[in-house]
Q: What sequence folds into this?
């Protein structure tokens, strides 16, 4: 098979048989792919394969395949080589008068595929007076495994997550699907019951205290409600209040805000044709709103929407709400730019 040797300074050399990995993904249903990513080591390895695929043309080649591989290639993130949680201190201190301490969930795909979102969330929390504990990830909560009915793996991942989380006032989540799952979790996560919050829910309730940017350029931002946030957690108004209050931001409402984008956990992988119907309607709603930026609050939605907008020829970047807020409030994420979901 085809072999690539990846070497990084101060890292050991890793040999990856990409042809065999691609064949595995092509043949495996979503549940088996998720099972392969149920450990931190395998999660990092798969993200590094994705990193390599984007830089060697393999991602484009993979689109020629049918089935899950084609879908994965279309919506895959542009991950970092190293998970974000391994690049920052285990505790980011409050940058304003201290009001408490929170723990930020690193997650699995989020930690390596959306590090800038974590950076923006941590920056906003710190600027608002909270110490931010960052456990070393990736740490999967098992949400996607639960979505496909793999209860055993989901339960095992929850137990490992519970053991890794340091005690604090609250568990903060910046991925709506994970937050919805964790708010309903019992067993080893029982101690976090009633203390698990979406980052937008927390900032709205406690007040975003970041300093506004001196001369924020005006920007039209449309907000897309992730189903797991709107329906699963009933967090509807908080993101809108935060965006309306952000300097220079004009919030543009999308039509049919309760409509799913088609991501729905792994629905866009298991049922791509039906998911495409949902996505096509969402893209037309975005086109009608004509925003400069489309904001959302879930990685699956971000990847799905970015793919749909790209396929429709619309040059509208997709960002997490916290990225928009951090930029508008002169609160740049430490050592990171905007998350790439194009």
A:
């Amino acid at each position: 098979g085809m072999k690539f040797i990846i070497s990084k300074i101060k890292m050991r050399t890793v040999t990856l048989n990409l042809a065999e990995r691609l064949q595995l993904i092509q043949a495996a249903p979503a549940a088996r792919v998720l099972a392969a990513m149920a450990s931190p080591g395998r999660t990092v390895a798969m993200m590094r394969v994705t990193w390599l695929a984007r830089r060697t043309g393999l991602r484009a080649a993979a689109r020629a395949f049918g089935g899950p591989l084609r879908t994965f290639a279309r919506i895959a993130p542009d991950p970092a080589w190293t998970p974000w949680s391994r690049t920052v201190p285990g505790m980011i201190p409050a940058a304003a008068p201290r009001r408490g301490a929170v723990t930020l969930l690193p997650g699995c795909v989020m930690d390596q595929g959306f590090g800038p979102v974590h950076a923006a969330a941590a920056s906003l929390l710190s600027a608002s007076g909270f110490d931010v504990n960052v456990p070393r990830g990736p740490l999967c909560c098992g949400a996607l495994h639960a979505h496909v009915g793999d209860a055993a793996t989901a339960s095992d991942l929850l137990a490992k997550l519970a053991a890794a989380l340091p005690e604090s006032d609250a568990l903060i989540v910046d991925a709506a699907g994970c937050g919805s799952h964790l708010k309903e979790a019992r067993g080893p996560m029982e101690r976090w019951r009633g203390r698990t919050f979406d980052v937008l829910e927390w900032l709205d309730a406690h007040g975003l205290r970041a300093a506004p940017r001196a001369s924020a350029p005006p920007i039209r931002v449309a907000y897309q409600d992730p189903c797991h946030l709107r329906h699963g957690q009933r967090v509807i108004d908080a993101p809108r209040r935060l965006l309306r209050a952000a300097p220079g931001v004009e919030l543009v409402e999308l039509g049919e805000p309760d409509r799913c984008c088609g991501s729905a956990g792994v629905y866009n992988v298991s049922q791509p044709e039906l998911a495409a119907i949902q996505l096509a309607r969402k893209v037309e709603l975005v086109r009608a709103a004509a925003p400069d930026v489309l904001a959302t609050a879930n990685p699956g939605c971000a990847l799905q929407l970015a793919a749909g907008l790209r396929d429709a020829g619309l040059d509208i970047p997709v960002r997490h709400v916290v990225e928009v807020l951090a930029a508008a409030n002169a609160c740049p994420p430490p050592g990171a730019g905007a998350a790439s979901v194009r």
